[in-house]
Design a protein that fits this description.
Number of domains: 4
CATH class of the largest domain: Alpha Beta
Number of helices: 21
Number of strands: 23
Structural class: alpha+beta
Strand content: 15-25%
Length: 663
C-alpha cells in the first residue's frame, strides 16, 4: 500500500467556481483519489481557498468592505460548489487561518536566515494622492507592447506579463491619479542560484507530463531571475522582520503552503502524520496557467527549505465555452451553482472527462453535452442497465440465472467484463482519465450489442439457457460498471449498486468478482434520462442573456450621480505656450490660462494629433480640480478634454470667457 499526497490548486477567493475550474483541477484530482482509495492506497487529498493578494483587496475597496469579508463570502461559495460536484477532499481550509499565517512566516524566516532571501532596493509606482505604493493590480494603463488597456501585471490582449512601471499612461485604480516612481525595498528569493538543481529535477523526473516538462524546460533555457517575494499593502501575511513594517508576503510564496497547512490541520483532526504522505508520493493537480509557479518557483522554494520535491504535477489545459474563451468579466461562463440546479453533477463529470484528454484544450458546448448524454449515457449505458434489470426481474424472478453451456459469444463477452477493471485501472494510474472512461464505455457498448444479438425476449420462448446466459453476464457487467464508474460518476455508480443490492463499492478488486446465481436484485428505475431540445435551447438563451445583462451592468456602472458630477470643475482655458516633452512621442507640455493669477502647466497626450504651433491660442476645456501629478517627470496641474481615439479637442464657443466654469 502506498501513501499518496494529492493537492488541488487553491481556488482564488474572489469568485465562485465555474466549469473550467472543475475540468482542469478538481475533477481529475477526485477521479485519481477515488480510484487509489479503491485499490487500497492511503490517500490524503487537500485544498484551501487562496484569500490574500491584490484582487481581493481591490474588490473590498470597491465594495467598501474588509478583505476578510470578501474572502469569507467566496470561500463559502467555493466550498458549496466543490461539495455539489462530489469532490472527495479530506480537508479544505483557508489561507487566512492563524495556523497558515504561522507556517508561512516560519517558512519565510528560515529561508531568510539561511540566506536564500535578501533585501533588494527597487523602484516602484507610488500614488501621491493615496500616499501608498501600488501593487500590480492597483495600477492600470496602456500595454507598452500592443497599446491596449492593461493591468499592472498582465495584458489580456497580447498576453504579455508586465511590471507596473512598464505601463504607458499608468493610473491608480483607486483615485485615478498618475503615480510616480519612488525608491523602496522588497525581499527577493535567490531562484537563480537553484537553476541547476531545477534543471536536474525537471529533466530527471519521468513522472512529469509533456506539457509541464516542455514549459519548464523552455523557461529554464531562458535562465532564471530572482523573484520578489513581498508587497507593500495591508492585506496579507506580514513579513516577519522588524524592518519590514507595512510589507506582506507575496501570494505566490504563501499560497503554495496552503497545501501543507491544510494537511497539517487534517493531521490534528485525524491523528495521522501528513509528512508520511508527502514523503511517499506527491501529486499536484493544477491548471496550465500556473505551470511556471508549480514546476519552477515552488520546487525552488522547497529545495531551499530542504524538502522533498513533488513527484507529479498534472496540468489541465483550458476549457472554452461554445467555441469562445471563457470570461468571468463578460459573464461568458457557466457557474457550477447554476449547472447543478438543473442537471445531475455526474453528467458534467462524464462530459468534461470524456470530451478531450486533460492535456488538451477542450470546449463545452450545450449541443454536444446533450448529444453525449442522450447517445452515450442514456442510449448505451442507461439502456443496457435498464433492460438487464427489467428482464432479470420479469423472466428470472428478480434473481441472477444459472450460467451453463456458454457459446463463443458468451465467453468472449465474459472475458471483456473480466479484463475491464485492469484496463481502466491502468489508464487511471497513468493519469489517462479519458482513455479509462472510453474503455468503460466501449465495454458497455459491447454489452448493448451482446444483449441485442442474444435477443433474450425471443430466447425466453425458444432457448431459456441462452436467455439465462445473457442475463447472467449482463448483470455481471452491471456490477463491473458500478465499480469502474465509481471514480467518474459516484452518484450513478451508487444507484447501480443499490439496484444490485451492493452496499460497498470501496474495493476495486471486487469489480470483476461475479455475483452468484440466485442472487436477488432490486427493482430498477431509469438511471439516465434524455435531455430535451427545449432544455438545451433555454440554457443557450441564458448564456446570451448573461452577456446582455453584463453589457447593461457595464453601462449602468458608467452612470454617476449629479452630486458626483458637480464635484468636477471644468473651466474654459486658453493655451498660451506648447512644447514637446523630450523622449516622448505622445506628450506635450502646455501653459494654459484658466483665469487665475498665473497659467497652469498641463501635460497632454496630444503630440500625435497636433503640433505645438497649432495649439497656441486655442480655447480648450480644462478639468481644473485634479490632483497634480507628474507625467514623464513633468508636473501636470489639470487635464485637457479631448476624444480618446482621434485626439480631437473639445473646443468651446469663441464667446466663452477664459476661466468660466462649464455647468
Amino acid at each position: 500500500m502506498s501513501k499518496i499526497f494529492i493537492s488541488c490548486a487553491l481556488p482564488y477567493a474572489n469568485g465562485p467556481c465555474h466549469l473550467g475550474h472543475i475540468r482542469s483541477t478538481y475533477l481529475p484530482a477526485d477521479i485519481y483519489a477515488r480510484y487509489n482509495r479503491m485499490v487500497g492506497n492511503d490517500v490524503l487529498m487537500v485544498c484551501a481557498t487562496d484569500e490574500h493578494g491584490t484582487p481581493i483587496a481591490v474588490k473590498a475597496d470597491k465594495e467598501n468592505k474588509k478583505p476578510i469579508e470578501i474572502s469569507k463570502r467566496y470561500h463559502d461559495m467555493i466550498v458549496r460548489d466543490v461539495e455539489s460536484m462530489n469532490i472527495s477532499l479530506d480537508n479544505f481550509t483557508r489561507t487566512t487561518d492563524k495556523a497558515h499565517y504561522d507556517l508561512a512566516q516560519n517558512f519565510f524566516k528560515k529561508l531568510y536566515d539561511d540566506g536564500y532571501i535578501y533585501r533588494e532596493d527597487i523602484q516602484q509606482l507610488y500614488c501621491p494622492n493615496c500616499n501608498k505604493f501600488l501593487p500590480d493590480r492597483y495600477v492600470e494603463g496602456l500595454c507598452p507592447v500592443c497599446g491596449s488597456e492593461a493591468r499592472g501585471d498582465h495584458c489580456e490582449k497580447c498576453g504579455k506579463a508586465l511590471d507596473p512601471t512598464e505601463l504607458d499612461e499608468p493610473h491608480c485604480i483607486t483615485c485615478g491619479t498618475t503615480p510616480i516612481i519612488k525608491d523602496t525595498f522588497q525581499y527577493a528569493f535567490k531562484l537563480s542560484e537553484l537553476e541547476d538543481d531545477l534543471k536536474e529535477y525537471i529533466s530527471s523526473n519521468e513522472n512529469l507530463p509533456a506539457n509541464v516538462k516542455n514549459y519548464a524546460t523552455n523557461w529554464l533555457k531562458e535562465g532564471l531571475n530572482d523573484w520578489i517575494l513581498t508587497r507593500d499593502m495591508d492585506w496579507g501575511i506580514p513579513v516577519p522582520l522588524d524592518e519590514a513594517k507595512g510589507k506582506v508576503l507575496y501570494v505566490w510564496i504563501e499560497a503554495f503552503l496552503g497545501y501543507i497547512s491544510s494537511a497539517s490541520q487534517w493531521s490534528k483532526k485525524s491523528g495521522k502524520k501528513w509528512e508520511e504522505y508527502w514523503n511517499d508520493f506527491v501529486v499536484h493537480f493544477i491548471g496550465k496557467d500556473i505551470i511556471y509557479h508549480h514546476s519552477i518557483f515552488w520546487p525552488g522554494l522547497l529545495k531551499a527549505y530542504g524538502c522533498k520535491l513533488p513527484d507529479m504535477i498534472y496540468a489541465g489545459e483550458f476549457l472554452s465555452l461554445e467555441g469562445e474563451k471563457m470570461s468571468t468579466s463578460k459573464n461568458w461562463v457557466i457557474w457550477i451553482a447554476d449547472f447543478v440546479k438543473d442537471f445531475d453533477p455526474d453528467l458534467l463529470r462524464y462530459y468534461l472527462t470524456i470530451n478531450a484528454p486533460l492535456n488538451k484544450d477542450s470546449d463545452f458546448s450545450w449541443d454536444d453535452f446533450q448529444r453525449r448524454n442522450n447517445d452515450e449515457l442514456a442510449d448505451v449505458i442507461g439502456n443496457f442497465l435498464h433492460r438487464t434489470f427489467t428482464f432479470t426481474r420479469k423472466y428470472f424472478d428478480k434473481k441472477i440465472p444459472e450460467y451453463a453451456n456458454p457459446s463463443a459469444d458468451d465467453e468472449e463477452f465474459k472475458k471483456a467484463i473480466e479484463e475491464l477493471p485492469a484496463k481502466a485501472g491502468e489508464y487511471i494510474s497513468n493519469f489517462e482519465f479519458r482513455e479509462a472512461l472510453l474503455e468503460i464505455f466501449k465495454v458497455a457498448k459491447k454489452g448493448n450489442k451482446y444483449f441485442n444479438d442474444a435477443e433474450p425476449w425471443k430466447a425466453v420462448k425458444e432457448d431459456m439457457q441462452k436467455a439465462a446466459n445473457c442475463l447472467y453476464l449482463s448483470n455481471q457487467l452491471a456490477k463491473t460498471l458500478a465499480f469502474t464508474l465509481k471514480p467518474f460518476l459516484p452518484t450513478k455508480a451508487d444507484a447501480i449498486a443499490k439496484i444490485l443490492n451492493i452496499d460497498d463499492l470501496s474495493d476495486w478488486s471486487q469489480a470483476n468478482v461475479f455475483l452468484p446465481s440466485g442472487y436477488e436484485i432490486n427493482k430498477a428505475k431509469p438511471l439516465f434520462k434524455k435531455i430535451e431540445d427545449e432544455t438545451i435551447e433555454a440554457e443557450k438563451a441564458k448564456l446570451q442573456e448573461n452577456l446582455k445583462e453584463n453589457s447593461e451592468d457595464e453601462n449602468m456602472s458608467d452612470l454617476i450621480s449629479i452630486d458626483q458630477f458637480d464635484e468636477v470643475v471644468i473651466k474654459i482655458g486658453q493655451i498660451k505656450e506648447a512644447e514637446k516633452i523630450e523622449k516622448s512621442d505622445k506628450l506635450l507640455k502646455l501653459q494654459v490660462d484658466i483665469g487665475e493669477e498665473k497659467t497652469r502647466q498641463i501635460v497632454a497626450g496630444l503630440a500625435k494629433f497636433y503640433s505645438p504651433e497649432e495649439l497656441v491660442d486655442r480655447k480648450v476645456c480644462v478639468v481644473a480640480n485634479l490632483q497634480p501629478a507628474k507625467l514623464f517627470g513633468t508636473l501636470s496641474e489639470g487635464m485637457i478634454l479631448a476624444t480618446g481615439e482621434s485626439g480631437a479637442l473639445l473646443s468651446p464657443d469663441e464667446n466663452a470667457e477664459i476661466g468660466e466654469r462649464i455647468q
